[in-house]
Specification:
alpha/beta
């Protein structure tokens, strides 16, 4: 009890001392700056549109020569700016000495400063050797301008994050250039400056009202104009109306570069850009300052007390999660405080104390750790009993001291607890039909300190039944490598061998199936060859029948045929041509299935394909009272990559089917469209009876007429099957969509011969 009584006060004392030391020494400043830099992108806002930067860039140097320029150039710039109405102008140039060789240029610049008011010129306080020197503009210039300091401090890591709103020597303090600019329109702001106060030091550089810059979103930037573009008149004077105009050096090598946590393109900032960032914060009223030290300390101390409370309320299992949640709350609170009140709470001390409290409380759990070791031992026994292989541990001389549940199942009974049960009394071992004593193998494994593994062993259990198993014997080592026994693993592979036998049977069955498939393919090939030969054999006499019928049909003045005979000849010719078409389809199908069909792929105009097919089908459509319309919305010069003969065959098949299976006085619509995959789709829509979904699945199979064979329309049911295979041979596709009672749409897609240009988006 006494131990628990003093434990919490001691922990509180240690954490309080750590809080004081870390706060006073600021040892974790680098962590605070890192957290600050991480939070900046979440708080940054777009650059203010009220700020315009006129840059002395590389283009300007090329136009006006090397720096520094004659002062009449700057006077010309101010004269141009004076014609507009900027809120304020800042020249980030030091004019501390008169131009002895061009006094008229000094006079012109003085007049321009008076003309372009309000103008802010920089003051720089810096070391000249061991002495601090304050560099001011020429008195004639200073009479017509406001002065602001251009000093920038770097943090200890070399990054610029803050500025002093006032800097100077002795009692005379100059406002920062961003503040001097802002005060031209808001002089009341000088009466109540924000920031961290500092004490003045005699004879040294004094600064006061330190604020941290929020910076602006680096994905945006201020309006930037080239110095030479402004002087050349390319920029209208009205571009500066109501703006804060900052003029400074941005060309590489001319100005000091200031690394910043946020900057456009991730590059260091120049002096004029840093002034713009400070002015941006003033315009948005988002300048930040650290939380006063006393509040910082008490907040950290309160978090230390909370960490002690957490360590007593949560178990070691959940304590890290609780600390992690509180750490996230500290970071979130720091970010929220900065966003809402513009005060920066440095969280590193609080986070360090919070995480330091965890190991201080951990030693209390040492006793529980011992208990967990016993629980782990129990868990190990449970795990061993859950293993499917039999596991047996023995002494070095082969006496069994443990069996898991799987080993007991193999043995068939639980061994007695006496130490007299020897492993060789339980198992008789044969390896490659040779008997072995397991106890000898145990001694060999211990002597050589290596595991022994044997596959497909025969084990006789208690002289009653045999099993086939994989056997592994490995030594068990105690402290300092002393052997304490052996562990035997028995993997019964009887069921596995049975499964292997079944797999072999399955393999044999699959071989038989493959043989049947090969025979089926051979039969299919023989069928294709038979169809091809028969088609050739049938076409020869059929062509003779058609030829003689055509001769009979010809008008012979000397021996004219009776009208009834002419009708008979017409029927013979019609039947012969129909039979010839059927034989040609069978021949095409045989060629496709045997892979002997040759495709002559070339470029063909889409308009020509449609014109050829509609010219052939239009008379037939008119004879049946059908209205055929063509809607080709594509360019007439569109070229398809197809076999022209086969493409006409596909489209004619669709059109003839639309004529044959259409309703009386129906309609046939042919449309084209370009798909995203650079394919042209040609669709043929009829107003026939339509097809059910189940019928659509069978439509492109050979010899499928879907019940039409009982009607008056002739056919074999292989036309669409041939169409599908021909389209695929030309790297195309076919398809159908249909609604019973409304009609069907058959479509084919052909690849483009030349990819069409993509129209630009507006």
């Amino acid at each position: 009890m006494a131990k628990c009584r003093f434990e919490k006060p001691l922990l509180i004392s240690i954490l309080t001392l750590a809080t004081v030391l870390l706060t006073v020494s600021d040892a974790l400043w680098r962590v605070d700056r890192w957290i600050y830099d991480l939070q900046l992108p979440l708080l940054a806002s777009p650059a203010s549109p009220e700020i315009v930067i006129i840059e002395v860039d590389q283009k300007s140097l090329a136009d006006f020569g090397r720096w520094p320029w004659p002062r009449d150039i700057h006077a010309r710039l101010l004269e141009i700016l004076a014609r507009s109405k900027p809120r304020a102008i800042a020249l980030d140039f030091i004019f501390s000495e008169a131009d002895k060789y061009h006094p008229e240029a000094d006079a012109r610049l003085t007049h321009a400063l008076a003309l372009a008011r309000p103008v802010v010129l920089p003051v720089v306080v810096e070391y000249n050797g061991q002495t601090l020197v304050e560099t001011l503009p020429l008195p004639d210039y200073a009479k017509h301008a406001a002065l602001g300091h251009a000093n920038v401090d770097l943090d200890r890591d070399g990054i610029s994050r803050s500025i002093l709103l006032q800097v100077g020597l002795g009692d005379r303090l100059w406002p920062a250039m961003p503040l001097a600019l802002y005060a031209q329109q808001h002089p009341e702001f000088l009466a109540a400056l924000p920031g961290l106060r500092t004490e003045a030091r005699r004879g040294a550089l004094n600064g006061d009202f330190r604020v941290w810059l929020p910076f602006f979103d680096p994905s945006t930037d201020f309006a930037r104009l080239s110095y030479s573009d402004v002087l050349s008149g390319k920029i209208p004077a009205g571009a500066f109306d109501g703006k804060y105009v900052l003029v400074g050096l941005t060309a590489s090598g001319l100005e000091r570069e200031l690394p910043a946590p946020l900057a456009v393109g991730g590059r260091p900032m120049t002096g004029v850009e840093f002034i713009a960032a400070g002015l941006d914060g003033l315009l948005k009223q988002t300048l930040w300052q650290p939380l006063p030290g006393i509040w910082q300390f008490w907040a950290s101390l309160a978090i230390a007390g909370l960490s002690v409370w957490l360590s007593t309320r949560f178990s070691p299992r959940w304590l890290p999660l609780a600390i992690l949640a509180l750490s996230a709350a500290i970071l979130g609170g720091s970010w929220l405080l900065l966003r809402l009140s513009h005060y920066w709470f440095t969280p590193s001390v609080a986070l360090c104390v919070l995480w330091f409290s965890y190991p201080l409380r951990s030693w209390r759990q040492f006793e529980k750790l011992i208990q967990s070791l016993f629980a782990e031992r129990k868990r190990a026994f449970i795990t061993l009993n859950a293993i499917a292989d039999g596991v047996i541990t023995t002494t070095p001389d082969g006496v069994v001291d443990y069996m898991n549940a799987a080993a007991i199942d193999i043995v068939g009974h639980r061994p007695p607890s006496s130490s007299s049960l020897h492993i060789d009394r339980i198992f008789s071992l044969e390896i490659n039909d040779k008997p072995f004593a397991i106890a000898e193998l145990i001694q060999r494994s211990i002597a050589e300190n290596v595991p022994l593994k044997y596959s497909h062993c025969r084990l006789t259990v208690s002289g009653q039944h045999q099993i086939t198993a994989n056997l592994a014997i490995a030594p068990l080592l105690a402290a300092k490598g002393v052997p304490s026994g052996a562990v035997i693993s028995i993997n019964d592979i009887g069921e596995r061998m049975l499964m292997a036998k079944m797999l072999m049977q399955k393999t044999e069955e699959q071989a038989v199936m493959r043989e049947l498939i090969n025979r089926t393919e051979q039969v299919s090939l023989a069928k294709s060859q038979f169809l091809s030969q028969m088609s050739h054999e049938l076409r020869t006499p059929l062509n003779a029948v058609i030829g003689f019928a055509q001769l009979l049909q010809m008008n012979d003045p000397e021996h004219p045929l009776d009208p009834c005979h002419l009708d008979s000849v017409e029927e013979i010719l019609k039947a012969g041509q129909h039979l010839l078409a059927l034989i040609n389809e069978l021949l095409d199908l045989a060629k496709i299935e045997s892979g002997k069909i040759a495709m002559n792929i070339q470029s063909m105009a889409l308009a020509a394909l449609i014109g050829d097919c509609t010219a052939l089908i239009s008379p037939l459509a008119r004879s049946k009272g059908l209205n055929l319309t063509v809607q080709n919305s594509l360019d007439p010069e569109v070229l398809l990559k197809v076999d022209p003969k086969r493409a006409r065959q596909i489209l004619l098949n669709f059109l003839s089917n639309a004529v044959k299976y259409n309703s009386p006085n129906g309609r046939i619509d042919l449309q084209t469209q370009l798909n995203e995959s650079d394919r042209v789709r040609i669709s043929v829509t009829d107003t026939g009876p339509g097809l059910a979904e189940q019928e659509q699945k069978l439509l492109f199979q050979s010899f499928q007429r879907l019940g039409a064979e009982s009607g008056e329309i002739e056919g074999t049911g292989i036309g669409l099957a041939i169409t599908k295979q021909l389209a695929e041979l030309m790297d195309g596709r076919v398809g159908v969509s249909s609604t019973p009672g409304i009609g069907s749409t058959f479509w084919v897609e052909f690849p483009l011969a030349v990819k069409l240009p993509v129209a630009p988006t507006q």
